[in-house]
Amino acid sequence: MIPDPSRMRDGLARMIAEAVDRIWGPEVLEDDQQAEVASSSNPEFGDLSCQVAMQLARKVRTGPVEVARRIVEELGPVPGVSSFTVDGPGFINITLSGSFLASYCHSLAVSGLGPHLPDLGAGRTALVEFVSSNPTGPLTVGHCRQAVLGDAISRLLGAMGWKVSREYYYNDGGRQMELLGRSLEVRYRGGEESDIPEGGYRGNYLSGWAEDLRSEYGDGLEWESDRDTFVSYAEKRAMDMIRSDLELLGIGYDRFFTESELIPEAVDRTIHMLKRTGTFGESLVYSDPGSSNKLWLRFTELGRPQDRVIRREDGSYTYRMPDIAYHVDKFRRGYDLLVDVFGSDHLDTSRDVVAALEAIFGADEVRRRLRVVIHQFVTLLCGGERIKMSTRSGEYVTLSRLVEDVGSADVTRYLFLTRRAEAHMDFDLDLARRESSENPVYYVQYAHARISGILRTAEDAGVNVPEEYDPRMEDILSGVHERELMRLLESIPVETAAAAESLEPHRLTEILASLATGFHRFYQHVRVVDGDRPFESSSRLMLCRACMRCIADLLGILGVNAPRRM
RNA sequence: GCGCCCGUAGCUCAGCUGGAUAGAGCAGCGGACUUCUAAUCCGCAGGCCACAGGUUCGAAUCCUGUCGGGCGUACCA
């Protein structure tokens, strides 16, 4: 059996729980979680630790240190563990054996991180919706964060065994598109700035489209008769622009889903469902007292702050309604997991959508299958100035401009992923550019490139990593620096799984930084390739290769390249 | 006003389903290249974890309140 950190931890937790059962009886532990075995914070406390003794002390009326001692005594020797100690207020600290760590690292070196990541998805399907910006102009810095976040979450789930699809949903039939078409038409006929309607779009990109439109269709188009041409042309150009912006970051979708694919059947059906689900015999949907055509949804009945109009006087829907119908559609399509990635400006709407879904499918079902990630806004600092972004005014920093200014998709992606979604983010453009040689990304990539260099040197010297693990390697890797690096590698699969479970890709940047530091430190102290000592070289090379595979695999999950030379 | 998010080193941020001395990058200061890449490493300095209470054997982490900042509070999306 391949040595594996996750299995080792689970196994130890189970053994500890069983030991507790044998000593104090099965009713003492509330659940298996209580005996959880986690990474130790500090090497002097071993590799792993368990704090169950401190939690049990009161219940079994024994001091925590004594509780820990009895558990350790009951455990006896465990394969893969070199020692158990009781430290501090009652921690059970566990030191893994050199052979366990070395053979695990051999597996990493040969097969990479993949086989050691827990199969959380187990082939189940997930749909990740992100960006979903209406096609009215180029994507901005704000979308950039969401794009990178959604893509990284998708990759992360994919790495954990989920079958992931990415979807972009947009409204192609609403008032916004009408305004966009109208704004294009003004440019097309060479109208004045003041002709652009209230709420219309003023970006320069529209002039270019207008020119192209003229050369394609001539200059005889009229708003009254060719409305659809203007609108659909604008939509097409806008979506082309969005797609190519996303491509700059290496982001693609499995499907672009438009609102018109829903209307009218799906929306009507959804309204029907909501009508039937009212409590106290009262429908969730009710007509406006002043107009039979206008419909309200009784959100207050669902614990939301206020009722909302879902269908206007003229029969068109407000944005919440198709959004709910779209989510119903996604539920119906049978995905095991739905992930929505939204900016904080959509929080309120999202809550309403979730409330409506709970009314239709039941709260348990929704809680089990839908997870919403809300990220905070990005403030762009440029020349010490804060830039407020707005697509409509035409004043904004576009995603493509940003990627160009930062100078690299890798850097852009990585920098956006170093903060957790809920944290506000100041993105200092000057700093991103200026620091680009001493950037956290390059720090990590450099570790990868350095190891690649070692591998090249090793190849020239005829040193390689054997296909099969050789138990004698354990002795070579017993030095403090080797040991330290193996300890670090041991924690990676578990940490990665935790990042996936919480949908927090930023944790991978933390893992990568510590991995790179670990390697750089190791490199400083240990010579790997030594022509006179082939077995030593090969053993250490194995460790380097394990490290390199982990870095490459984790960077891959973030969508960042792992260069072999820098 | 109400709802959600945030407040940790000079700056940007990790750490938050409670645990053992609070971390990183940048900026500052001082060291280390005859070496598989110095885009590196080592050291120093820098903190009432916004504030006040509470729960606990134990709180940056959980609860309450206060003060700051962001977003939302549309028959726009």
Helix content: 40-55%
The secondary-structure class comes to: alpha/beta
What Rg, in angstroms, do the CA atoms define?
29 Å
Biggest β-sheet description: 5 strands, parallel
Sequence of strands across the biggest β-sheet: 7-6-5-11-12
- What name does CATH use for the topology of the largest domain? Rossmann fold
Describe the structure.
With 566 residues, the protein is an alpha/beta fold. It folds into five domains: 5-96, Arginyl tRNA synthetase N-terminal domain (Gyrase A, domain 2); 101-119 and 438-558, Isoleucyl-tRNA Synthetase, Domain 1; 125-137 and 144-170 and 257-375, HUPs (Rossmann fold), CATH 3.40.50.620; 175-250, no CATH class; 378-436, no CATH class. The chain contains 20 helices and 15 strands. It has helices spanning 5-24, 52-56, 64-75, 98-111, 141-159, 175-188, 205-217, 223-248, 265-276, 320-332, 347-361, 363-369, 399-406, 409-417, 429-434, 440-460, 473-476, 480-501, 506-525, 534-558, and strands at 37-39, 48-50, 81-87, 91-96, 125-129, 163-170, 255-258, 285-288, 291-297, 308-311, 337-343, 370-375, 378-382, 385-387, 425-428. The longest helix has 26 residues, at 223-248. The radius of gyration is 29 Å and the shape is globular. The two termini are 38 Å apart. The relative contact order is 0.11. The mean pLDDT is 91. The protein binds one RNA strand of 77 nucleotides through helix 6, strand 10, helix 11, strand 15 and helix 16.
